[in-house]
Amino acid sequence: MKFLKKNNGLFYILPSFILILLFSIIPLIMTFYFSFTKYNVVHAPEWVGLKNYRNLFQDSFFKASVKNTIVYTVLVVPLQTLFSLLLADLLAKHFQNRFGNAIRTVLFIPVISSMILVGTVWKFILSTDNGLMNAILSLFHLPRVNWLGTQKTAMISICMTSIWKNVGYFLVIYYAGIMDIPLTYYESARVDGASKLQELLYITLPCLKPITYLVVTLGTIWSFQVFDLVYSMTGGGPGRSTLTLVLIIYQYAFKQYKMGYACAVSFALFLLVLLVSAIQKTAFREEKEA
Question: Structurally, how many domains does the chain consist of?
Fold first, then answer.
């Protein structure tokens, strides 16, 4: 009782700790355990040691999903970071009025929309026969494009859709950061004859480094977890061109009932995200110290 009286603040964090324990820590431990087993839900888990992890290196679907997930991340994260920064800078400096508020609201609507809904709508927009994109191309007498039906364009289409959905979220974060930068910085730069580009490069970007780290980290984690957008738009096809790590986890676990193997893929994904996050943190820290 004396301990509880001296540390009564523990009661305030206890509900959050219980939720984290139940929905994060325990599932992670269970996933790690089942990754060393052959488990199909019906029968009891059978210990197989490192067999599941050895099979990963021979699994062509796993290799394709790793490659596609990395390609998706490399395409989406830099572009959505750049677009959200430029849009936020434009709105913060030139549209601090009702029109700017309306633009931010419109850009944020996709963020609060379901990813499945977004994927379904964009699948219709990118349809070869009746899609809006091909209708626009036809107006300019350009050939129709099979956006989701070829390996060259399917991944690009998914990346474009993902950027469209998420850019509003990161725009709001950047907008808040830009509004927090003292105006005296920009006024001093203008007195010295700095251009708009120089203001962006030498004032805005350095002041937004912590926010950029947050945006890049969140974007990377979300990109490695992409599932519902791919599932609703292409299902991993054509071929294996849009197959992602979370999608094959779903297929192995709930279509082939290879729960143990799916757990091995899940833990491999966890380690990959951990590695990339550590690299990003190190890179940002070195840049800050420099």
Answer: 1
